Amino acid sequence: MSYATLADFLEELDRLGQLRSGDATADMPEAARLHRNLGGDDVPCVTGLLATEERICRALGVASPEEVAERLGRLLAAQSVRAAACESVAQVVDGALAKFAPRPARVGSCQKVVRLGDDVDLQQLPVPCDGPDMARRTITTGQIGSRDPASGRAWLGHAELSIHSRRELVLHVAPYEPLAELLAAYRKAGEPTPLAVALGGNPVCLPAAMGPVPMPIDGLALAGFLAGGSIDVVRCRTLDLWVP
Description:
By secondary structure, the chain is α+β, with helices and mostly antiparallel strands. 29% of the residues lie in helices and 18% in strands. It is built from eight helices and twelve strands. The chain has helices at residues 6-15, 53-60, 65-77, 80-83, 89-96, 178-189, 205-210, 219-227; strands spanning 19-21, 32-35, 45-47, 103-104, 138-139, 143-147, 154-158, 160-165, 168-172, 196-198, 232-235, 242-243. The protein has a three-stranded mixed beta sheet. It has a three-stranded mixed beta sheet with strand order 4-11-12, with no helix packed on it. The model has no long low-confidence stretch (mean pLDDT 84).
């Protein structure tokens, strides 16, 4: 089965005994942990959500990783005629995923509370410090939303983001990652790169964002394929971007 929201997924993990409170003893070190008092606004935070292969497969609604490959293989087989006219494998995959394109929505849960300007304080986010070598608290599961500068289509990727101040995040990007390609494309065009960060949401979005998906493949369409239906997206309040 697939899960429409992170809350649905957490309820299932709790029912299966795979969710523990953040201050619980280490009886199940592989369990996901729900923390309720890490941030200034008492916003809950979950860690270790996809720390096991079993939970990754559960989030994707499959019995094994091989099932994802088999489903994608069947989808691509239907594109075999079109493949001859394409310049790259990425174009074939992108065409196959077109029917899972994201679905625009007028409102979304992520915009029930909106803070702008001086009301923004990133330091209040419930972000744990992952280890003694980490200089700043770092968001490790941020889904980075942007758009392809060539086509204007929505783009979904991943990067770690360290909290630098109330209104500044430090983006960690390796040169070989798809996000680096996106940043380079905007730099070449002489334009600032529009970026948004989505946290939580449908649990299939995070694996889709973290995969090494090259442009022009639409990461949101890939998430829709993994979920078995299009992902709802909303327009950002201060950027012309669509995010889960």
